[in-house]
Design brief:
The protein has 44 residues and is an all-alpha fold. It has one domain. It is 48% helix and 0% strand. The protein has two helices and no strands. The chain is elongated.
Length: 44
């Protein structure tokens, strides 16, 4: 079986997710909304 490498340009996803998902922060105050949004988009 051959291995497959998938490369995804997520810069647009990060931009969309950062401004679409509000109020998600790590305990130290670091915004995590972009990470959460990108993972949700990739899951679809």
């Amino acid at each position: 079986m051959s291995k497959r490498l998938i490369i995804v340009d997520v810069s647009n996803f990060i931009f969309r997710a950062f401004f679409a998902v509000r109020g998600m922060n790590a305990p130290d105050g670091t915004p995590t909304n972009a990470v959460h949004g990108v993972l949700m988009m990739m899951r679809k």
